[in-house]
Amino acid sequence: MPKLLLVDDEESVRYSFRRVFQEGDVEVLTAGTAAEALKAIRKHLPDVIVLDLQLPDRNGLDLFGEIHAAEPKRPVIFITAHGTTDTAIEAMKTGAFDYLVKPVDFERLSQLLGRAFEAARLMNVPSVLPTEDAGDRIIGRSLVMQEMSKTIGRIAPQDVNVLILGESGTGKELVARAIYQHSRRASKPFLAINCASIPESLLESELFGHEQGAFTGANRRRIGKFEQCDGGTLFLDEIGDLSAGVQAKLLRVLQDQRFERVGGNESVQTQVRVLAATNRDLGQLVASDRFRKDLYYRLNAVTIKLPALRERKEDIAELAHYFLFRFDREMSSDYRAISPETLELFQQYDWPGNVRELQGVVKSAMLAGSGHLLLPEFLPDHFLIGSAPATQDSDRDIRGDLEELIESCVRESEGRAHEQVVAAVERALFRRALLHTHGNMTQASELLGLSRATLRLKMRALGLSIDKIPTEGTAPEQG
């Protein structure tokens, strides 16, 4: 559970914080003075601090300076009275995460805290893709992952921009964190922003900030990510979705390390290392004039291409067990291993969602099952059936007289006659049952006198896919 420390001398504010956030999934700690705050920080190690600028025993800005010098990765959010916003802005320039004006808008604060907790996680949770020199465990021992880890080790200490390419779910953010954690900027902030998740009209303000009155709703000056992250590392995910205007402004920052806030004329100096990522083909976007060629060359001083999971299947078992043991600790379950049959299914699957999909499948299977062993019947239906590969005999079916089928199998199938006859009969039986129940797996299993899990596994072994069985216009059951 993430920990939040509120430092404010007003009891009403401390009470409101406890009432709003304590019932959620955040542990709320409070302090009324600077001395109490320092004691709470040493004892409880909060993830995020909300700090009032006016404290009875010390100036909040001085306290922030001491906290930031000792723990520069801990996000600090200021709350301030109307007359001291300039002081709060100056504090943000030296490393504060953000600030709010009293009276506190708790809905907005809740959103801000979500970003702050995520920033704390990104800066402090160890990456599982460190360099080999660090002596830490590498998740994935395939040759391609070993080479990628060596590349991370070589470029992390070099103060160059990096372009990270790969399909969705391959772990681009993970690589960005590994580069950051092994760089010379590791003691400075690390902030991440998904360029595709923020409306185009707001993205420029999010990155570069804005002045008061710059547009409707801009009732105060906002410090953007480039200014907040001065001296640190900024991870721009989905960089291929930037608009032309934001691309031009980003190019200037990369060239000159200077920019203007939206609606402002003051030139702001910054020193930020940019790590950019995308699952799109930037070369193709450049060729079609949808991405600036000069920005593309600025971003990819070094390029890291992450392999899809289907391209490194030798890593699947290790990754699956890593997720099993990680979720086992989180869920306090009793799982100890993954059955060989389950691992075989994992190897046969193409994993269109890559490592992220593998993580989700392992977790959902753990929630669906019980015991010490992760068994095939715990896996989701769509995983077992919807992507079943065709078997060698998948086209063989009962196309006429049963005797003719048996005669054919006996004559042509040396040592496999029984297996092929049973498979052909079961394939036809399952098709007919699912056609009769309009694709409803539960009804079909009841009709056949089999458990739902057994029917799924048998269909998987026979190469039958429920989405390829006609159901007379009725959508098949997938859950």
Fold and architecture overview:
The protein starts with a strand and ends in a 17-residue tail after the last helix. Helix 3 (60-70) links the parallel strand 3 and strand 4 (76-80). It is built from 20 helices and 14 strands. Helix 19 (441-448) packs across helix 20. With 479 residues, the chain is of the alpha/beta class.
Question: Topology of this protein?
Answer:
Layout: E1 3-7, H1 11-21, E2 27-31, H2 34-44, E3 48-52, H3 60-70, E4 76-80, H4 85-93, E5 98-101, H5 106-124, H6 143-155, E6 162-165, H7 172-181, E7 190-194, H8 200-208, H9 225-228, E8 233-237, H10 244-256, E9 258-260, E10 267-269, E11 273-278, H11 282-287, H12 293-299, E12 302-305, H13 316-331, E13 337-338, H14 340-348, H15 354-368, E14 373-374, H16 381-386, H17 402-412, H18 417-436, H19 441-448, H20 452-462
Parallel strand pairs: 1-2, 1-3, 3-4, 4-5, 6-11, 6-12, 7-8, 8-11, 13-14
Antiparallel strand pairs: 9-10
Helix pairs in contact: 10-12, 13-15, 17-18, 18-19, 19-20
